[in-house]
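Hello, quick one for you while I still have it in my head. A protein chain has come my way and I'm curious about its shape. Can you walk me through what the tokens say about the fold? No rush at all, and the record is pasted right below.
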Amino acid sequence: MCQLLGMNCNVPTDICFSFEGFAARGGKTDEHQDGWGIAFFEGAGCRVFLDEKPAIASPIAELVRHYPIKSKHVIAHIRKATFGKVALENCHPFQRELWGRYWVFAHNGDLPNFEPARQGFYVPVGQTDSERAFCLILNTLRQTFPQGKPTLEQLYVVLQAVTQDIAHYGTFNYLLSDGESFFAHCSTKLCYIVRQAPFAAAHLIDEEVTVDFQELTTPLDRVAVIATTPLTDNEAWTALQPGELLVFQDGLSRRFAQHC
């Protein structure tokens, strides 16, 4: 299956360290060679880089590894194709506009027999089950809140309900953000770590790279990193529980009451 990487912070931060290990899984330390992508929110704007080449061999990935783009919300994905051919239109993350903001989505898993009706404002461009799920989520939100963006609590309730409906079809681990809030849903496998003072050194699993964050941060910085599996071998990562939908804001995780 695919791999997910996300970052949510209280101050703009670069993701070079985490992406170094993550990109290695795109053809070097793992088999995910069917494309990759990454999105950086910067204010109301969003930079999206996509490539159907393996991350380990992509010149665009090389740029991202060494160019410290700073952002408070980042979503990245490396793909192992199951639905849809290896092509640029099938690379995650996917991006659409809703309520005057960009929304970005990436999915890990398979949704067999998930064929929602192609109706509503959003329709998929590619052939993936993932993009179909994203379009259904946004169509549901747009139809439920036609007057504009609701409160985070209201948004969470509707997002959780449509997520549960989609998850009945299979494995639905995903990351979703509009540059204000960051959502992470675990179906089978997803974990996170919050780095804050006192900062320490971290060592990547997939590359022989260590960074001492104490040298790169201030005592007020806080960074949450979300990944399919831990990226470092000397830090304590927290596993999300199956069915859990978590919200991240300013590098902190929030849990709302679960609704049935």
In short: The radius of gyration is 17 Å. The longest strand covers residues 3-13. Helices lie at 16-24, 59-66, 129-144, 152-167. DSSP finds four helices and 15 strands in the chain.
